[in-house]
Design a protein that fits this description.
Blueprint lengths: L20 H8 L1 E2 L5 E2 L3 H18 L3 E3 L3 E3 L8 H12 L5 H9 L2 H11 L3 E7 L6 E7 L7 H10 L13 H15 L10 H15 L4 H16 L7
Antiparallel strand pairs: 1-2, 3-4, 5-6
Helix pairs in contact: 1-2, 1-7, 2-4, 2-7, 2-9, 6-8, 7-9
């Protein structure tokens, strides 16, 4: 995987695509080495993955929020999952963000996990189903450098801030890593990560600052996810 911002890429020369917004969120939202397990509830996990998939299309300028979600690009998505989401939006343009979040949440976790398996960031691990059943399945991180989401966020929060200032952030890779970090914050994943105290302090400050510098569509998406987390009755932040 090409080097992605926040330390979430593979070695130079790799042919993998960079981790995308939903990929980064998925990895941050899971813990474990031999077998992954979610750090948050299934509803929040699904909401974060769905938000990540929409954020990817916003960053690629394939959809606009006006405030309804509408296609706006040429359909040149870098992977099949993004294309399938865009195709669905093209077929039923005009729904609000909250509608698309709810629709995509039903299958978003499984689809993002499958994408990570296809690019060999995750690998399936057969496990026993016990006396009542046959084989089951679990997943583990295959690429420990690429899959270390905690280290990526630690670096993002403590490295020199290239997104400071008053201008809107426009670099796609920077938008991807900041948006995924905001999804981590809003869904409550952030408080479950073993970040250093320095990273925690700087992260809270930087995320608040960066949020105001996002393009309007991404700010709307983050706000909608924050609202959805509140409606679910699960506090999203610390």
């Amino acid at each position: 995987m090409l080097k992605a911002g926040g330390g979430s890429g593979a070695e130079p020369g790799s042919t993998r695509l960079p981790l995308r917004v939903a990929d980064r969120f998925f990895l941050a939202a899971h813990a474990g080495e031999a077998r992954l397990s979610p750090r948050i509830g299934s509803d929040l996990l699904a909401l974060g993955c769905a938000g990540g998939l929409l954020a990817e299309l916003i960053v690629e300028q394939e959809i606009a929020v006006t405030p309804d979600v509408r296609p706006s690009g040429n359909g040149r998505c870098p992977d099949f999952l993004s294309w399938t989401v865009l195709r669905e939006i093209r077929r039923e343009a005009g729904h609000e963000l909250r509608t698309w979040l709810a629709r995509l949440a039903g299958t978003a976790v499984e689809k993002v996990r499958c994408r990570l398996v296809l690019v060999d960031v995750l690998r399936e691990v057969p496990v026993s189903g016990g006396l009542r059943g046959g084989s089951a399945a679990a997943w583990r991180v295959a690429d420990t450098q690429c899959g270390n989401a905690t280290a990526a966020l630690e670096e993002l929060f403590t490295a020199a801030d290239s997104a400071s200032g008053s201008g809107i952030i426009t670099v796609p890779e920077r938008l991807a890593e900041i948006t995924s970090a905001l999804l981590v914050r809003e869904t409550g994943v952030l408080r479950h990560l073993a970040l250093s105290k320095q990273a925690q302090r700087q992260g809270e400050f930087r995320l608040s600052s960066w949020e105001s510098l996002l393009p309007g569509a991404l700010r709307s998406l983050v706000a909608e996810i924050a609202t959805a987390c509140g409606v679910s009755g699960t506090p999203s932040r610390r």
